[in-house]
Amino acid sequence: xxxxxxxxxxxxxxxxxxxxxxxxxxxxxxxxxxxxxxxxxxxxxxxxxxxxxxxxxxxxxxxxxxxxxxxxxxxxxxxxxxxxxxxxxxxxxxxxxxxxxxxxxxxxxxxxxxxxxxxxxxxxxxxxxxxxxxx
Amino acid sequence: xxxxxxxxxxxxxxxxxxxxxxxxxxxxxxxxxxxxxxxxxxxxxxxxxxxxxxxxxxxxxxxxxxxxxxxxxxxxxxxxxxxxxxxxxxxxxxxxxxxxxxxxxxxxxxxxxxxxxxxxxxxxxxxxxxxxxxxxxxxxxxxxxxxxxxxxxxxxxxxxxxxxxxxxxxxxxxxxxxxxxxxxxxxxxxxxxxxxxxxxxxxxxxxxxxxxxxxxxxxxxxxxxxxxxxxxxxxxxxxxxxxxxxxxxxxxxxxxxxxxxxxxxxx
Lengths: 135, 267
What we know:
heterodimer; A: N-terminal domain of TfIIb; two-stranded antiparallel sheet; B: 2 domains; 10 helices; 36% helix
C-alpha cells in the first residue's frame, strides 16, 4: 500500500497557501487544503484546489530546450547555461548593464527570488528586476 | 484520550482486523490526514484538536473512498466523530464504501465543539474515547427563520455575492463523490465565468445536499468568503426531515431519501 499526503506550498501565486497533495502509488491524485496553515486556514482558491492536475501533465517542461534552426531541441543543462551566460555577457558588454532585465516569479521560493535579484544587481549590474505577481 | 485511540488502533492492527488506519497526524508542525500502515508506528497520531476542539478536521471518509478503490481487498480503520459516522452510513448505503472493509474508530466530541457545530449527535454510536456531549438545536437556522422572507432572501443573496466560485464546498464535502457534478455541467452552469449565477449556483448545491448532508460543517470551514453554508444545509436537512422523515445518517435506512420512490410508486 502506498498512499501518502505530502505537505507542500501552492505554486500558483505568491500567497503561499499550505496544502497536502494526495499521492497514490506514486501519482498525485488530489489536493487537500492544510487546516493548520496560518495563511489559508484550510481554504484554497479554485486554482489551488486543482493544483494536482498539472503535476503529471505531458505539457510540462522536464529539461532545457534551445531553439536550433527554428526548432526547440532538448539540450543538457550545461549547454543551456553556457549559452545563456555567453549571450548575457555579450549583450551586456555591447549595450550596457541596463540593457538587460530580469523577471522573477511567484512560482519559486523567496530564496530563489533573492538569488535572481542578487544576480541581476551584483553579477550583471542592473536594477531592472520585476516580478510576475506585481499585477 | 489519544492513548485510548492509539491502543485501540494498535489492537486492530495486531489482531489483523485492519491493514491501514486513516487518521490525522501532526508532522512538520501541521496536522493533516495520514494513512498509518503499522500498528507499532503511530507516532504523531492526533485527533484534530490543535488549538481548539476539532479545529483541524478533514474529510477522512472522502479520502478513504480513493484509498479503498485502489486497495479493494484491504480493510481500513478510520477515525470517526459523530458526523463522520453519519457520513460512513450514507457512503455504505450509496455503495461508495464497503461496510465489511471499514472499521470505525469513534471519538465523542467535547461540548465546546458540539456547541460550535450545533450538532444533533456529537458522538458516534460506539466510541473508544471521549464523553458524549449534549446535542444542540440549530439556533443559526432559527435566527435566520425569524427574519421576514424578503429580508431573509436579501440576506442570502448578500452572502452568495461573496462567492469566488472556488468549488471548495464541493471539493471538501465527504458526501460529494459523484464522478460528474452538476456544478461542473455546462448545460446548467456557466462554468467558466465569474461571479457565479446567484442564487442558482448555490441553491443547486443546496438541493443536492438534500438527503445527503451529514452536517460536518467542513464546507463552511473551507469557504474563503465565509458564506454560512452549513446553516443553509442545516435548513435543507430540516425540510427533508419534515417532508420525508429522513435525516442522513440518523434514520434506519441509509439509502438517500430521494432514491426511495415511496407509496407513489405503487400506484
